[in-house]
Amino acid sequence: MSGDDNPLAELxxxxxxxxxxxxxxANAAIPELHRIAVDVRHWMTDKQFADVFAISQLSxxxxxxxxxxxxxxxxxxxxxxxxxxxxxxxxxxxxxxxxRWLANAREARWxxxxxxxxxxxSIGLMxxxxxxxxxxxxxxxxAFALTIVAAIVAATTRLNPLWLLAAGGCLGFxxxx
Amino acid sequence: xxxxxxxxASSAREPHADAPSLRMLFFAFAKISLSGFGGxxxxxxxxxxxxxxxxxxxxFNETFALCHFLPGxxxxxxxxxxxxxxxxxxxxxxxxxxxxxxxxxxVTILAAIYGHxxxxxxxxxALAGVSCVAVGLLASAVFRMMSPLLKKRxxxxxxxxxxxxxxxxxxRLPLAAVLLAAVPLSIAVTSAKRWWAR
Lengths: 177, 198
Hints:
The complex is a heterodimer.
Chain A: H1 7-20, H2 30-40, H3 46-58, H4 66-104, H5 109-137, H6 141-156, H7 161-173
Chain B: H1 6-11, H2 22-35, H3 41-51, H4 57-69, H5 74-117, H6 121-151, H7 155-168, H8 175-197
Helix pairs in contact in B: 2-5, 4-5, 7-8
């Protein structure tokens, strides 16, 4: 069951479903995006997924744009638009209705408990995202060392991350990884 | 409208009397989005709270917290919720399109370039280097989010976190199945902890 006849419908359903489980934002959804795009639907290889992740981090805008790139590689510009709307539309509509409902019924207690219980979940999901992309990109010792150094520099300084990404690109271009 | 009498008159109005036009909302969100490398939240806070003063810091935190605990990309949720608070549903849609539209065009152009030159070795090597650093940035974000749990010695929270990581990362289990187990578990643990602490 590949749904070859209508890739746009397939893209829409796939990303709308993923978005409903994307607790903790787009970066927490990366393992699931990878599982679906690489392992289940075979839209791209592991390496291509890492490339697409790199491009989405290099470009400005919300991190969810990795979905635009996956959609583009499946069905061109139409795929890019459909994938992005499917990932963002339904959940934004949900947020809109919940915020209106909360504004009417000021019940502040259960959201606080819910929020506190979702924190460890979203950290675990983000850590899994790092793990999944590292599987594809950190295949040599110098590459692994670069990841560690980038993590330390980002955690201990306020340097704009764009400089670190650019430095990584230069090192890769020079063939040092 | 001479400038001498305007301040007294405008200070008497309610806070949202000076709600921005739809055009302003669109351009504000496009600017937030296009200046946000590696995460847009910082720029959104700066523009909404400090630059335009459309919300107080507390209102912003409250709105963001809501958008954070709901599923989906947080900042995209925020754009629709925030825009609609200022200018109704049209404002929400304009902010949503302003946030997503311009970077989408940009990223699609990058995708087309990648489609043409993706097999060029130099480009692949450069992207591999970028991706190594991006993984490091993710790891540092994880560490920053983890430090409150470590400081509070929140053992149960750290256990839930590790279990979710192991299930999704190394074990590659489907997200839906893991969340269906982990969300109720985490809510139960958190509620029990709060009840115990009372």
